[in-house]
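User: Study the chain.
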Amino acid sequence: MKLSLSTVLVAAACVHSAAAVNIAFYTSGNCANAYFVCVNQSRDSCCDPFIDDVRYNSMEFQQLGTSQNVQLRSYDRGGCSRRTATSASNGRRTVCFVREPPYTGGGYGGFNLKRNAVEGGGADAECIRPQELGFPDGTKFNLTSLSDVDYAKIAKLSLEIPSDVPEQFQQLKITS
């Protein structure tokens, strides 16, 4: 069976477009230190830390595909309700947003997405909360099993190193 070039290109585009990125939120202003991350975030969906009284001063898009240019989006006023900034990935593997804090949501997708009735466009997008808490040393905690109350408890802590995580949450540590 012979495959045409167009068939191969379409198949490659489908595989590549299925790849997802990570969206991380930092309280620091430079995408450093501890972070909450939505892992394998889908295109045109919203990563929302869901914590009103925590100020996220930087947001990072990680594991971007270098062969595809996508629009990266930041939001404020809760979740993905009002778009504050956009940037093109331009073949970069990571992009850090620091200019328009605080960040309450993030997402990515194509450049032809029409805005909905809410200025900024993300209100209709599926919103998920971060699934992991990560630290610069590579230590990670799986947050998927936490209730909203426990998630809020851990998100409101000023965490700098893994040992800052309370004992009751240490069993969530991901072993490598």
Remarks:
- Confidence is low (pLDDT under 50) at residues 5-18, 116-122.
